[in-house]
Amino acid sequence: MDPIATAVLASWTLDWGSLCLLLTIAVLYFRGWLHLHAELPHKYTTGRLASFGGGLFAIVLALDSPIDALGALLLQAHMIQHLLLTMVAAPLLLLGQPVLPLLRGLPRWLFKDALGPFLSCRELKQLGRAIVHPVVTSFAWSAAIVVWHFPRLYDLALRSPAWHQAEHACFFWSAMLFWWPVVDVWPSTPIWPRGAMIPYLLFAGMVNMGLSAVLSFSNHVLYSSYALAPRLWGISALEDQAAAGGIMWVPGSIAMLIPAAILGIQALETRRAHPLKPVLRVLTPHRPRQWDLLRIPIIGPVLQYRYFRRCIQTAMLLLAVIVAIDGFFGPQVAPMNLAGVLPWTHWRGLVVVALLLAGNLFCMACPFTLPRDLARKFVTPGYRWPSRLRSKWIAAGLLATYLWAYEAFSLWDSPSATAWIILGYFVAALAVDTVFKGASFCKYVCPIGQFHFVHALVSPLQVKVREPAICGACTTHDCIRGNVHQRGCELQLFQPRKAGNFDCTFCLDCVQACPQNNVGILRTAPGRSLLEDHHSSGIGRLSRRPDVAAIVLILVFGAFLNAAGMTEPVMMWMHQWHARLHLSSIVPIATVMYVGGLLIIPAMVVAACGWISRLGVNASWKDLTCSFSLALVPVGFSMWLAHFSNHLIAGWSTVIPVVEKFISRASSVNYLQARVPNWIPSLELCFLDLGLLLTLYTIWHVARRLSTGDGVALAAMSPWAVLAGALYSAGIWIVFQPMQMRGMMIH
Amino acid sequence: MILAQAAAWADGGTVQLRQEAGDLVITVFTSPGPLTVGPVDISVLLQNRDGLQPVLDAKVSLVLRAEGSGIELQAQPTREQARNKLLYAAPVTFSKPGKWKMAFVVIRNHEETDGVGALEVAAAPGKAVSYAGYIAFPPVMVGLFMVRELLIRRRSQRGE
To answer: Predicted ipTM?
Structure first.
C-alpha cells in the first residue's frame, strides 16, 4: 500500500478518557436494554441496540479516527467529522430509544434517590417539553450550524482546543435536539403531527443547502486557518473549501431527504401503528438479589477456601521478612532498598486503592498476626484485655506518634528504621496476643488497623449477613462463639448485629463458622454506615465514642499534614526555621508542627464547631462533636488516596531494579526514574471532589438526624461544612504544589 | 460525551512557521493554542516542494532556546509520537514565557536541511484556572442537591 495512505490510516488516537465514558454509557444502555427487552421485546428490539451501538461507534469514528487527525489540515475532513456527529451519530443514538434503557441501567439509588425528584418535577417536564418543541429544535440546530460557520468563530475553534470542543458539543447536542421530534423519542409524546416533520426536514435541508452553497461557490478562502495550513497532495485551499461544501450539500441533503421520504410513505399508509405509551413499571426497577463477592465464580470459592487466609498471610510474612532483611543489611539509600520502596510507595498506595475498590484487604492478609496464631498453639492466653483499656485511646496515641515520627525522623528515608518498625510490629502483636485473649492487638493497639477500620467505612464491600431471617432462627451463634472446627469472631462482632466495616478485619472467620452459610461479602453504598449510625455489636454507636472521634480527627488532619509535609513550601518553611533557630535537628520543628496540626488545632477547631452547632440543636456537645467528626472521614480519606496514589502511579516501576539488586546483589543496576504523568493532578482533584461531596452529604444527614427541622439542620451543619471546605481547599493547595517524591529516584 | 474528549487534542494546531528549504517545504505547528508555558506538542510537516507530497522518511531534531537565559530544550519529533502520522511530533515543556528561538535540522537521504524560527510563549494560566472544572464540580453538585431537596420538600407539602 502507498506509504502515505498507510500513514493516514494509522492516524488513530484512542483517547482513553472519552473511550471509558462511551463504554460506561454503552454498559448502562445495555444493562437497561436487557431489562426492557425482557419486558417489552417488540419495543426494545435488537435493532435498537444495534442502532445505539452504531451511534457510539460513529462518535468514536468522528473523534478518534484519521478523520479528526486530517481535520486540522483539510476542511473536507473536518466537514466529514461534523456530518458524522450531526447526521449519523445523533439520529442513530436516538433511534436506540435511549432514555428508558439509560435510566434503567443506572444503579437503583442513583435512579431513585438522586434523579427521582428531578424526573418527577412538573416544571422540569414542561421545560423538557419546551426544549424538544420542533420550533425550538429547528432553530437551535440552524443557529448552531450557521453561527459556527462564521469565519471568526470557525478559526477560533481551529486555534483553540477548548473552543473546538465547544463547537463539537454545540453541533452534537443541537443535532440531538433536531432529530428528537423526527425520531419521536420515547417517552416524550409528539407535539406536531408526524406529517409536519416533512416540511421540518425540508426547511433544515434548505438551511444546510444555503450554507453549502456559500462554501462551494465562494471565490476566496473563508477560513484563514486553512489558508495558512500546508496544502496536502496539491489540493488548494479553495478547492478544499469547495469540496467541503459539496460534502455538506450532497450527503447532508440526503440525510434530510431519506427520513422525509420515510415519513411521507408512513403518512400515506392508512393503518399506522400507534406507539406504545410507556408504562410505569418499566421505570421501576425490581430489587435485585444483593451482589455478593463470595458468589462470584472462582473468586468466591477461592476466598472461602479454608486455608486461603493462611496462604496470603504466609506470602505477606515472607515479603515482610525479605523487606526487613534488606532494610537491616541492604544499602541504606531508600530508592535502592526494598524497605525504602515497597512499604512507602507500593504498600501504602495499594492499601488505599483496595479500601476504595473493595474493603479492608490488608487486615485480611496481615502478616503480623500469623506468628501469634502459631504461638497460640503452644501458649494459651490467660487474660482478658483490661476493661479500662477497652477503647481506642492507646491506638490513637500510637497513631499520632507514628505520624509525628514519620516526619521527624524521615522514616521513609531510613531502610533500617523501617525494618525495626516491621520487627517491632511482630514483637508487639506476639506479646499482646499471647497474654490477652481474642484479637486484642488488632482491636485496641494496632494503629495500622485503625487506619483501615476507619477508612473501610467508605469502602463498597462489607462482611454481612445475607438473610437476616435465617439468623433469627439461629441458636448456636457460631459466627461469634465459634465451633469445634472454626473459631468465631475474635473482635467480638456478632454478625446479625454488626453494622458497617468498623473493627472488621475481613478475616472471614464468621463466613467459615456459620453453619447456614449465611454470611457473605455484600455490596454496600460507600459511607452508608456513617449516615445510619446504627448500634453495632462489639462497638456500640460510633457517634457516642469520643475515642473513635479522636482517631478519625487524627487521621483526617494527619492526611493533610502528612501530604503538606512533602510539599516544597512547607519543607522550605521547616528548613528556614531550622536554620533561624540554629537547631541541630529538624525534630523540634516537626514536633511543633505535629503537636499543633494534629492535636491542638483540630481540638480547638472541632470544639468551636461543636459549640456553634449546639446553639440550635438539642443534643450534648459531646454527641454533636463525635457525630460530625465522623462525617469528615471521606474528605480525609480522599487526601490519603490522592497522596498515596500519586506515589504509587509515579513510582510503581521503581521496585523492579530494587528487586533485581536484592536478588543478584549486583552493584550496577540501572535505577529507573519515577515519572509523574501530567494527568495525576486531575485524578487527585477527582478524589478530593468526591471526598468533599460525600462528607457534605454525611454532614447534612447527621444534621437532619440531630435536628427537628431543615432550617435548624442547616445552621447546625454550617460550621462543619465550612471545616470540610477548608480541608478541601488545603487539599487543592497541596495538589498544586511541587511535591517531594520520597523514596524515589526523580529529577 | 462530546466534551469528554478534551484531552485528545494533539499535534497539528497553530501554524508557527512555514519555510522552503532545499527540496522541502517545512511547516511547524504547536498545540494547544495559544502557546503558553507548560507542556506543548510541537509537530512538523515535511513536504516535497514538487507536488507537496508529505515526506515520511526523514529524521527531525529541534533545539529551542529561551531568549535572554541559558535555558535550552532539545526534542526529536517522530511520526510515532504524532497523532496524525503524516507529521513528526514531540512533546516539550516550556519553562518560561517570552521569545524562544527555534532551530531545526531535517536529515533525509544523507542530506541535511536546517532552518530557524521563533516562538512567542505566553505566561501560563494559573493552576486554578487550568483545573477550574474540577474545582467548580463540588459547588455545582451542591447546587443540584439543594434543588433536589427543595423538590422533595415541595412534593411532600403537596402531599404527592
So the answer is: 0.82
